Amino acid sequence: MPYSRRCRQAQDLLIREEVDALLVTDKANRYYLSGFTGSSGYLLLTADRVFLLTDFRYLVQANQQAECCEVVNQGKDWYETLKQLLTCHQVKKLAFEQDHLSHSQYLKLAEKVDHCNLVGKQNLVEKLRETKDFLELGLMKKAASIADKAFSELLEVIRPGRSELEVAADLEYFMRRLGSEGPALDTIVASGIRSALPHGTAGEKKLELGDLVVIDFGATYQGYCSDMTRTVIIGAATPKQRTVYQLVLEAQLAGLQAIRAGQLCQQVDGVARRIIAEQGYGAYFGHSLGHGVGLNIHENPRLADGNQLPLKKGMVVTVEPGIYLDDWGGIRIEDMVAVTDDGCEIFTKTTKELIEI
Ligand SMILES: [Mn+2]
Q1: Which domains are seen in the chain, by residue range?
Q2: pTM score, whole prediction
Q3: N or C: which end of the chain has fewer CB within 10 A?
């Protein structure tokens, strides 16, 4: 199992960060380090021990899933249990995840463990999660293939007169039946002029002849997300729809071409953006080219202007340029890919040829 290796990597950070222990309150970080999927639980990592605090409902499950952890019943007041552990293991300086603790939780923690110096940290475990290991890549490939299959089933049932919500419901149902644990994001089905809303979640609008339909969705498999977008046309495409579609596709393919280990994130964004800008549509591609995916749908690294982070082998990112024209519609094409030494492996297999329904 990968969990003890991951915990050791996190424990190595304690020295660099000059703290005695780390409290993990984020659910995805907790799952990444322990394998525990329960809805409630906290990890405490000291230099040589890993404790999982959880409540009565999850004790059996936690012992089964989190083999690398010592499971502790958190009791009535987990702050009190935590305090005892900290005292017992001479923790004087405790790092906590400042992005994953509410203000009231922080106040309670500070009040309870007043013998400890609390140090807020960001992105410690998230940084480890940026590059995916072989096991994770397999799970993400599976999540992507569920989405691909569901989309091909969806193409059989999209037709004029059906509402965006009905189409989204079908898509989520197909993914579920194919093994998805739930949608990876609020499924976007945005049609007609609504497709110009980059994140237009499905509504009551019915699909009409001539509509562009942006469909952005993903499956989850053992906690890992997939993310893909296709834009289809109800009926035959107009010349302008065809032209803008080809431009977005050209930018998307160029973005994919630019990906390899060592390449800077901003360069990948720039390559795709330039193609759209050269045709005068630069102002209508207002978001970044892509983002990391993993246990969360949006993770680092961001493929964005100004991000000088070099890509690394094993990072999983999306490449999703779009052009959005008010009162006309929008087109986005998105694949999810894994970075390799000399390029990328595309997990999304659905065709990117223009689909006319
Ligand atoms: Mn995306």
Answers
A1: 3-129 (3.40.350.10), 134-356 (3.90.230.10)
A2: 0.95
A3: N
